[in-house]
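Why do we care about 3D structure at all? Because function follows from shape, and shape follows, mostly, from sequence. That is the central idea of this module. The next example makes it concrete: a single protein chain, its amino acid sequence, and then its structure expressed as tokens.
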Amino acid sequence: MKARSQSKAGNPIRRPPASGNSTGSSGYSSEGHATSLIDRLSSPEVRINVEDEIDGCASSGNVITGKSGKSNTMAMSPADRVRIARTCFALACLWPFLFLLVPPSSSPASVTVMDTMAAMDSETGGNVHGLKRRMKNAHAKIDHLRALTSSRVSRNISAKTSFLQKEMSSLLRRSDVVGYGASHPRVAVVVVVPSQPESKGEGYDEDVVLNGALDSVESLFQTTDRNRIFIVTVVMDGRGKVGTFEAKLQDIDAGRTKHRHGGMVHTHDHHHDWQMEGESKKGEEQDETHTHSEKIHTLYNEEEIGVAASRNEAVHFINVLSRKHEEAGLKSHDEDLILLFLRCDATLREADGSRTWLDDITDALILPLDDNSNTAAENAYQPANAVSFAIDYSSTDTEGNVEIHHSHVGDVLAFDDLLRPQTSTANAQQMSLSNGESYPTPIVGGGATAMRLETYNALPAKDQSLWNHYSADLELSFNLWMCADGIDVLGTSLARVVVDPLVLSTQEKTNLPGPTTARLVSAWMKGHGDDEYASATLRAVANFAAADYQSKNILENGSRPRDHAMSEHRVLPEKARDLKNILVRIAEEAQQSPTFPSGLGKKCRPFSWYVENVHPELKIYQVEENDEGSDSNKLNMSNGKTLPSKPLDDQRMAIISRASPVNIAYVDASGGHTEHPHMGATDENGNFGYVHDETALVKTPPAFVFKDDMDHTELCKKGDPNWKMLTEKVYVDLTNHEAAEKRAEHGLAKKKRAKIFCLVYTIEKFHDRVPAIRETWGKKCDGFMVASTKTDKALGTVNIPHEGPEEYNNIWQKVRSMWSYVYDNYYEKYDYFHIGGDDLYLIVENLRLYLESEEIQLASNGGHYLPDGTEESQTPLFLGRRFAEGGDRDRMFISGGSGYTMNKAALKTLVVDGFPNCFPHLKTFSEDVMVATCFRKMDILPYDTKDDAGGERYMPFQPGHHLTYFPPKNPKDDWYSNYSVDVKWGKDHCAAKSVAFHYIKEDLMRRMHAILYHYC
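And the structure:
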């Protein structure tokens, strides 16, 4: 793909603006001020019907322009006009016979010419002279047919009438009079170029924005059959006319950049020659007849009105133009125009042969007409859905090379409890309905969104006070889901854009100011009994704003935010409460503004329906502050305890109900460290009493880097099953992880983040496997240690002697000593403890979010109420991939391959109560079965760790194995399928937010890390 244009908008161009302006120069008065073209179209002076518009052959059809770009019509002598009038009068007498030669069509002129041009495309095969001849015939046919529809061919043309006819003809010629009809509707495109003063983002560059908009428009013409472009409306918001920008748009409109006709892409030079892509001109005669009617129109808002209002203005213009085309017979009523919102930092994906993105969009949005129906009413129903284009991102290195970073099939955009955008993934059920070809997204991606024009016209909410692209897209998404038929992503289609992140500021694409949030909340979360969502959202926004406000003040005074958040524990809630009251007042006042979308409760589905059916991952916490007597507290509190938003299912409740709560206070079980398994570790000299610094790796983490170009190539190679699973299903939830980090940093979270201790076991022989662990996932754990047969402080390995020999058949004794060492030295510092071998890959961010989830918090507190942080006891949790030993579900254990995770209560129970009484001197390799057996004796059963879609979080094999493995017809014929418990197979086997994988050696470990964390 070529790089974005690096030219500045102010650089000299190839042709001065005075030579003509195809992008709406008629929209300017002689003083250079913007005037409303829509107002002129709607005025009595310009109500031109078919007869008025085609008042003489001179003003009909494609007006041929000379090299100056000016019409030749005004240059005609009176004698020429008389000759033309007489000729037209003679032809008018013959028009009934001529029409017998015209095949029936919904739009006689346009469809016939389109059929002619389609035939030309297939017949010429690159024959330039044949193409010219057929084009001249096509233009002549247009002139004759349009002239013959007029009965007033002899009227004198005054100068004023000629001017009005030229202007309307300029607008109408933009259709090229060649739409393919109702089955292949044209597209009307809106590109808003927002004003971005310094207050909207640092490093703003006006030229970058304008060049980005030019690239967006150019990509449209390069990837779209020009004959299917109805109009491209570019809205310059908060800007006056920029001559160089206009002239470059004119070059695009005139065909001096690459553009498409059917399956053919070509470019004209300054003299309008026809040049095929990849061919050079070889002295052919210049083709002065191959001109393009105008497709681009520019609207100017010198006073900034915002993205939402700019879109509405553009759509209003499109509706007026569409009506005028129908009145002039240039558009069939059955042609259902497609509306495309194209952001000015997005370029459309190149076509695949003759098929373009518009073909895929048409298939998704337009139901084919029934040939057996007799009336348009019988074909009236069309779906009111929209398509959000999949988004890839580009980056440019210092040498100007552009690299495209492709998104994954299944990627969608959602939002958190602050209404901030966050990436998500379609669940397995949604993906399976169409084999990943189409899946719903909670909100549009923003780069490009397509829908039927009538779908947009019917949407009830069009708030003019939404200034940036994200707020306008959020309202559009709520409209489409709650008041229409929803939004889909066509993951495997050509409906895809490449976004340059340098064109628009982050605030333009992701920011949602507090007052804007209040407007959206007031419009969409009120009524239907959904007021609790409104209250919780405004509270979350206020809490976040209060912390941000405090942090900025602290930083200005030289203090640390962490310390301040702790010392000002009382001030922060008061500030948040004040801010929430302000937001509530803004929300109430918003309802009085003229463009506020009122009454949505009677027209659309409730927000609770949207959460349940479209965005179930949205977590809106109802209790964020202690408001006495608040309804939300009454709803979510019972006897002073917090109820969960979703109870545990019966199966999980039955598992934790078996276990008894455990007091989590530390109890010394070492016995003076004189006997195994509590003898401890030795230092590098073999002396007992060594205590490893488990935070050393976190303090000085090694960087993850590619060794060389070959290493980069090997790690980032595509197409194999591991790559497919890690790009099409599994991902790291960095968005929610980073949000949780920020909340914890500013003291907004009710509890501190879960602290995780990671334990890996190996032997000295395999110490070469440790560096890959340290530079990938090990450094993400709060505490990290490698239990081995030799202590090496540089590697973080610790020699922990155990009873019996150091061999595979004695791992049970090794694990007893490892867990005893961890309990004796680190128990009180950490909340959860995970163990696995040296071929384990752990996705720590996903694990931490899972352990902090309401489900795990609820389960650890007995399953009825959420903990408040003051509990002294805890229900033991034994987490991992469950296996049924020999297929016996009464003998469940957790596979040791991907490891298992325990909370404090489980670790204490295992070490203090289990080890002394459960096979204390047994010699065996099956340590995972032994741990589960000991827990079972104390009524602690393996917990089901599947996600809501039924995907497993802990994987006993590599990602690619789970993608390709399917069980035999008789599951008992294979140990893996026989041992597995209620699992899905193929891509659906792995949870999107998987936690752990097994059999991951050094190269695959580094490769997984490079893929998952976007180094590739």
